Amino acid sequence: RGGVAELIQCIKRSKVPIICICNDRMKSSVRSLANHCFDLRFQRPNKNSVLKRMLEIAKKEGMEVEPNALEMLIMGSSGDVRQILGLLQMWKKSSNKMTYTDAQKRKAGTGKDSVLAIDHSAAVQFMFKASQDPTKFFLRFDGFFVDYDLIPLLVQQHYPSAVQASTRMGKPHDEVLQSLSDASDAACDADIAQH
């Protein structure tokens, strides 16, 4: 509370540009902030623009990617650039080459739409109980995008059971608590950065 008013005061005093980014332009606090900003609106890039840029990035990263394979990822993620970059990064860990056939095999139901069909708690359970098969990582990764505001909070809600499971497996209690603390700090930092 009061953060927007303070930000407006900082903008008025600052001699360097301050860049503010929002998702909901019509929110009342954002509207008051917009009166003190240059309002630059962005639109979702079209499929061809995303494809072209992702091919450039893949090439710079030393990946050989078939355009139709990348197009399938773009369609499966509904053009979500962050998700596509994450998928490319995970793919590169196992291979520098992506063919359409390989992408189809790995996809096998990993499209964003199929994962979004599940609810929040099912997504969290799925993320932690999916098999360790590397191709299933994409499914767990997509589970985060069911609701990237709520999923970290649901994960945090399950910390106590994670502590119990870890101590039953024989891990030292102080090590488990430190890991829990680190995870909690990361979730809080992400929430602060997002909001």
From TrEMBL:
GO terms for cellular component: nucleus. One of its GO terms (biological process) is DNA replication. SUPFAM superfamilies: P-loop containing nucleoside triphosphate hydrolases, post-AAA+ oligomerization domain-like. The keyword ATP-binding applies. It holds the Pfam family AAA_lid_RFC1. One of its GO terms (molecular function) is DNA binding. Keywords: ATP-binding, DNA replication, Nucleotide-binding. This is Replication factor C C-terminal domain-containing protein. It comes from Aplanochytrium stocchinoi.
